[in-house]
Amino acid sequence: MTNLPVKVRSVSRVGKALATLSLGVAMLTSACVQGFAQGVPVVRDAEIEALVRDYSRPIFNAAGLSKAGIQIVLVNDRSFNAFVAGRRMFINTGALMQADTPNEIIGVIAHEAGHLAGGHQQRLRDQLERAKTMAIIAGLLGAGAIVAGGASDNRGLAGAGIGLATGGSEVARRSLLSYQRGEEMAADRSAITYLDKTGQSGKGMLTTFQRFQSALSLSGARVDPYRVSHPMPQDRISNLQTLIQKSPNYNKADSPALQQRHDMARFKIAAYTQGQAAASRMIAKNPGTLAAKYGDAQVTYLYGNLRSAQSKTDALIAAQPGNPYFHELRGDILMKAGRPKEAAAAYGKAIQLDPAKSGLLPVMQGQALLAIGTPDAVKQAVAQINKGLERDRENISAYRHLAQAQGMLGNVAEAELATAEGHYYSGAYKDAAIFAARAQTRLKPNSPAWMRAQDIINQGKSARR
After folding, report:
1. pLDDT at 402
2. What is the CB neighbour count within 10 angstroms for residue 320?
3. What distances in angstroms separate CA 263 from CA 266, 294, 355, 420, one per listed residue?
4. 119: left (phi over 0), alpha (psi -120 to 50) or beta
5. Three-state SS for 220?
6. Which of 264, 288, 339, 459, by CA, is between 20 and 30 Å from 126?
7. Which regions are annotated as TPR repeats (predicted)?
């Protein structure tokens, strides 16, 4: 396990969508869209990403999305929510931590898959354009009436013009929100279909909507159901409850092994995002379980004694020697203890055992090899980091470590190009172009590396236009 806060990064490249479709009760406002466009705080973790991919795989198959290249992104946010933009599905860490069962998160994924399979994003963009056009026309008509009223000294006509402008905008807004509510219900129904196809219960979806309803009731807020972009939680429950309960899979529970992985992920998120006291309280509710022991080892690593954390992690490895993430945690502890050679070996074992072939673990081993610092170790670090990047091209921090390693070896051009790549994948195209141009002066013309640098330079030129 790596330090989650360190892995949080802002992703500006995914913030170009005109609008997003989310799970919860929300208003579609310009502030919401602008906040998204400014970047999403993303968490990278091999274990949690593998778990969520396992949740999504059968759902994507049922939805016809298995070959669509959908990427699931974890967002560092405590709220229970998920949303889609482009070919990416974003799931808040708060949703994972609050969901008691895998089935609840699987229901969330199924709902978002309904949006993707239904092409709702493109249709929403079309509706936004239509609403914008309606508002512009209403504004022009209103302005015309105001001008005419002023010219004729007719205060009544001028007042009507103001009402026409504001009223037209409100009609456009309500029309858009009504459309969105319909798409949300369609995504809910699609989710039930996917769950049935995969032999899974829809009970988790009901639990999620009941959670929303409870939160809404406790807030005391009075919500106008015609001024929100999602149906009210109680309406969603009423529309789906009979359909879900009559399914032969209604009482089907998650497997104990999957539940254990889910709990491990929850305790890990709690340890890294909620603080020691909150994580310890959560772990104490599940005494004696392997997941609780894992969570305790994480808390001890973060806030306690490293020797004790290693002892607890070694006990976990003895109980489940084939778990790659126990070895990963051991590597983290050894790195923090200033023992990079042993850490590199622990990460190597995690890589060997990792069925998901995450690109994150080789990069972590590369960091340990960098810390060893010998020429041979640094060369190995370059190889491991490149292996990680082959699997995960958008790992921004990996490019930083690669640039450091290449610099230590005296490979200035390669270091400059790695820095350019890091800027490129973070969306800083102008900075990327500067470093790519510097790399080109030292690279062989028309070589693959030189051509890649040219691609980055061209992107930088496009960004300046």
Report:
1. 98
2. 12
3. 5, 10, 19, 39
4. left
5. coil
6. 459
7. 324-357
> Is the CB of residue 231 less than 8 Å from the CB of residue 216?
no
Residue 289 amino acid letter: T
Distance CA 57, CA 53 (A): 6
| Residue 244 one-letter amino acid | I
For the record, the structure tokens of 355 come out as 């069925």
Q: Give the mean pLDDT of 351-367.
A: 98
Q: Give the sheet arrangement for strand 88-92, strand by strand.
A: 9-11, 40-43, 71-75, 88-92, 82-85, 21-22
pLDDT above 90: residue 415: yes
Which of 271, 278, 398, 397 shows the shortest CA–CA distance to 329?
A: 271
User: Which of the two residues, 123 and 204, has the higher pLDDT score?
Assistant: 204
Tokens of 21: 């479709």
Token output for 206: 């009901």
DSSP, res 254: P
- pLDDT on residue 99: 96
pLDDT at 231: 72
Check whether 16 has a pLDDT greater than 70. no
The helix (H) or strand (E) run that includes residue 94 is helix 93-98
- Do strands 88-92 and 71-75 pair parallel, antiparallel, or not at all (unpaired)? parallel
Mean pLDDT of the chain: 83
Cα–Cα distance, 412 to 150 (Å, whole number): 70
CA dihedral 425, 427, 431, 433 (to 10 degrees): 70
Say if residue 331's pLDDT is above 70.
yes
Three-state secondary structure call for residue 24: coil
Nearest to 111 by CA among 133, 92, 94, 89: 89
pLDDT recorded at residue 181: 78
Burial class (CB in 10 A: 0-12, 13-18, 19+), 367: buried
Count, residues in the chain: 465
100: pLDDT strictly greater than 60 = yes
